[in-house]
Amino acid sequence: MKKYSIDQSPIYKLSSKKKLKEILYIDEKKLKQATQFPAHYSFNKKINGKTRNIQPPINITKKIHERILSLLSRIEVHTFLFSGVKGRSYVCNARKHIASSFFLTIDIKNFFPSTTRKKVFYLFYKMFKCSPDIADTLAKMLTFNNQLVQGSCVSQLLSYLSNYEMFEEINIIANKYNLTFSLYVDDMTFSSSQDFKKSDVIYEIKKILKKSDYQIKRSKLRYSKTGDITGVIIKESHLLVKNKTHRKVFLLREEKNLKKIKQLTGQAKYIQPSFPKKPKLKPPFSQAFSHKALDI
How many C-alpha atoms does 21 have within 13 Å on its Cβ side? Predict the structure, then answer.
């Protein structure tokens, strides 16, 4: 897919609802339906031990989200972003830090719920320079209950673009301290081959987040010599599968659940090609490191 700058996007400087309907392949009736009564279904899902409410779009709302994703995904984004971008993944995100020996990971608290319709509006109004009514229409279609939609195909990329200036500021801080920086949704990783002043970096990141009405998630703040980055372990310049994945595959073999074994082993080999076909319950290497949250 050919990438272009934001000023080449069909959405840029959009001021006509007629043109908006043409771009989205919808008529007036569907536009009203998507803005006044956006269609979603809602269910609760347990993710990493916490229950989250997921509201994926359906019907015409889903088609509009898919079309807007197609348009936004053509815009050039920074190399530090690894979520919502074709050809980049959580493993690519971890691999960026493979030469490092010290890792600081920071998550943003309640990132999607805190990314409000107002932030999405200003994305299209200020960054895309759309007219106020077009920016408002897009913001209404792309949010649910005044926040970014959990479960929409476009939300990952939209979360970055809606906070573009904030993440650019954070990248400047990373450069200031000579750190490698990567972003996967709200998971930020800073790393270096040398020990660095984590407290100074955290202080500056907190200030930047606060300006945009975000906070650091204290329970996910980590500084370690072993990287645990978006579910991938980095130890001694190697990408490794987590111990719990070995245990899961071992237990699945005991249950003879071949379908799940194949699925989980495929995921593991994507991270670590040398992942054994028949893993032992206790892996032949140590991934032990402190999981205590830093005092902030």
Answer: 12
CA nearest neighbour of 42 among 30, 57, 27: 57
54 φ, ψ (degrees, to nearest 5):
-105, 135
For the chain (296 residues), the mean pLDDT of every run of 10, in chain order, is 92 97 96 91 77 90 97 97 95 96 97 97 98 97 95 97 98 98 98 97 98 95 95 92 78 76 80 74 46 48
Return phi, psi of residue 27, to 5°.
-105, 180
Of the chain, the end-to-end C-alpha distance in Å amounts to 42
Q: Which of 276, 190, 271 is nearest to 238 (CA)?
A: 271
Stretch (H or E) spanning 29: helix 28-36
3-state secondary structure of 232: strand
Bridging pattern class, strands 143-144 and 222-224: unpaired
- Parallel, antiparallel, or unpaired for β 102-107 and 143-144? unpaired
119: left (phi over 0), alpha (psi -120 to 50) or beta: alpha
Amino acid at 214: Y
Q: Is 230 in contact with 184 (CB distance < 8 Å)? A: yes
The amino acid at residue 152 is: S
Indicate the angle between helix axes 59-72 and 132-142, nearest 10 degrees: 120
Q: Are the C-beta atoms of 153 and 32 separated by less than 8 Å?
A: no
User: Tokens for 5?
Assistant: 């700058």
Grouping H, G, I as helix, E, B as strand and the rest as coil, residue 105 is: strand
